[in-house]
Amino acid sequence: MPLSLNVSANEALSGIFGSISLTSWICLLLPQLITNYKAKSAEGLSMGFLAIWLFGDIANLSGALVTGIAPTATTLAAYFCFSDLVLIMQCLYYNTINARRARQRTRSTGTEASEDSPLLRPRRRSSTGLPGSQRRNSTRHEESGFDPITRIVTGEDETPDSNPWLHNSLSLAAVYIVGALGWFVSYKVGAWDKPEEPDVPTTASPVAIVGMVLGYLSALCYLCARIPQILKNYREKSCEGLALLFFLLSLSGNLTYGASVFSYSQEPDYIIKAIPWLLGSLGTMVEDCIIFYQFRIYSPERQAKPNGTA
């Protein structure tokens, strides 16, 4: 059955990729938010990573609005800013609360924290919550001790995930299916019908130039954002506190986001306008792969082996 005359094949393909990307970004927050909530801590995340990421998303949204890039790209850019703020607020909350508790405990004892202080808790080797997540211990776990009933009620299971990569791959497959179905549903209800072609500025217009500058600025921020997180993981020789699925969804979102932008049109003028968005989304995939490698070499099982050998 052919598509409606109001939707070309390129627009349909762009819409499907964009819907999958949007689904990835909608789900992106959940693994890390749940990991932070269970740990009652956001120590695993670099605030520099989140701050640069937010700045890049703001520039991305501004450039998308000015340039008239694919509608899905503009929608995603707006959601990026919202999701960044949610995660940053949660991290600031836990960092503030934990710092305040640390100061109160220090004042109550009258001495500085030492290795025997309750502030230093033994790290857990198991991954809890979502598959592939590694996190620091929480105060609630210490209070619950080893009571199995309490652990079940609070969701703290000591059993490690035997195959997190497989489980996370299945989660990604579900995201792709839901995203594709979401586009077809929106198409059937007429969400993609458009009465007229929108005005798009040419690449030589001042508006397009401003949009390009903002686009390249956002791409630069995206490429630099993960560097603080990679360095933090390297210094601590740990990915504890990070959810593997968080970065897998980021990789999937960036891949389909770039595919959405590219498949929308292959006209030279449009490709030139889209270069910064393609660079920002596809370029960060390399850095995501570095973080995946860190997940592997800094895994508790690998660290437990003599000399860190495989």
TrEMBL record:
- The UniProt entry's coiled-coil ranges are none
Reactions that this protein is recorded to catalyse: L-histidine(out) + L-arginine(in) = L-histidine(in) + L-arginine(out)
Q: Give me the Gene Ontology terms describing cellular component.
A: lytic vacuole membrane
Q: Which is one GO molecular function term here?
A: basic amino acid transmembrane transporter activity
Region called Disordered, residue ranges: 104-160
Superkingdom is: Eukaryota
Gene3D superfamilies for the chain: 1.20.1280.290
Please list every transmembrane segment annotated in the UniProt record, as residue ranges.
Answer: 12-35, 47-70, 76-97, 170-187, 207-225, 241-262, 274-295
- Membrane topology of the entry: Multi-pass membrane protein
Transmembrane helix among keywords: yes
Which keywords fit this entry according to its UniProt record? Membrane, Transmembrane, Transmembrane helix
The record's annotation in Pfam families points to: PQ-loop
- How far does the signal peptide extend, from start to end residue? none
Q: Name its GO BP terms in alphabetical order.
A: vacuolar transmembrane transport
Name where it's found. Membrane
The record's comment on protein family reads: Belongs to the laat-1 family.
Protein name in UniProt: Vacuolar membrane PQ loop repeat protein
